[in-house]
Amino acid sequence: MTAWTRRNFLKHSTAAVMATGPLLRRAAAGARAADKPGAKMRFGLVTYLWGQDWDLPTLIANCEKTGVLGLETRTEHAHKVEPSLSAAERLEVKKRFADSPVVFVGPGTNQQYDDPEPEKLAASIEGTKAFIKLSHDCGGSGVKVKPNSFHKNVPREVTIEQIGKSLNKVGAFAADYGQEIRLEVHGTCAELPVIKSIMDLVDQKNVGVCWNCNAQDLQGEGLEFNFNLVKSRFGATAHVRELNINDYPYQKLIEMFVAMDYAGWILLEARTKPADRIAALIEQRKVFEEMVAKAQAKV
After folding, report:
1. Which of 3, 91, 182, 284 is the most exposed place for a label (fewest CB within 10 A)?
2. 59 and 47 Cβ atoms separated by less than 8 Å
3. Any residues with CB less than 8 A from the CB of 39 and at least 6 apart, and which?
4. How would you label 8-24 residue by residue, b for 16+ Cβ within 10 Å and e otherwise?
């Protein structure tokens, strides 16, 4: 090799190293971030209220624009992901999601298991089965349900037992379809000791708790105690409200999810009515990412 050739070889080799160095550093940083607790958590949307009037193509397109890439579709909303869909329509819904980066997390229902009237309870169980089939056919992974309330002249323990038994029934049915039942912490059953009592009666492993960021979370012995009561039974979804506009301790909540290395969906169930929902969704995603990074720095 001549002196000129050696000089050029060294020059181009050095340039290549300098050019690839930042890429390698970014790749290494990405790998380190992926190894951190909570790195598998993802941010998505419950379509109440910010997506309730968007049809399905608009809903998916807006989620793509904002980087909010998971959807729990509420029943009775404009996107019409409902048990009434035909087989062909279900395939179309599945294809729309498959052709996009947006994940159909599953339908959010109003099915609940507290009613003391046997006919209404049976109807809710059958309604849940219909949504399980819908979720399966459309490519979802589970169905959100509610416990939901205590009733006058019915002992609390009777209602708790009824809800637990009902969850076992729908959970067994859902297992045959590869689906999860997600019990939203909701209604007058929303105190976490009550949710724990219900889940203690549930032996179906595909039935999980959907944390819901209620005022009851802060009652009794406080957020961390209540979180720990049910965290071993968390399902693949949790609900939050706007992360930066109320007094719920969201940073602490995210820290606890990160500490347990939660790998599910944190779904925004918004309460406000911003003029620009696209900008608001982007803002919420960024706040979530900042909270996760701050929590990871503490681990």
Report:
1. 3
2. yes
3. 33, 296
4. eeeeeeeeeeeeeeeee
* Domain enclosing residue 20, as ranges: 1-35
Q: How far is CA 137 from CA 69, 243, 264, in A?
A: 20, 33, 21
User: What are the angstrom distances between the C-alpha of 143 and each of 33, 131, 184, 201?
Assistant: 31, 7, 10, 19
| 11 and 115 co-located in one domain | no
* Shared-domain flag, residues 123 and 166: yes
pTM: 0.89
* 22 and 135 both lie in a single domain: no
Which tokens go with 57?
Answer: 């193509």
Number of domains in the chain: 2
70 and 205 within one domain: yes
For 116-149, the pLDDT digits (tens) are: 999 999 999 999 999 999 999 999 999 999 999 9
Closest CA to 298 of 250, 246, 256, 265: 256
Find the CATH number of the domain harbouring 161.
3.20.20.150
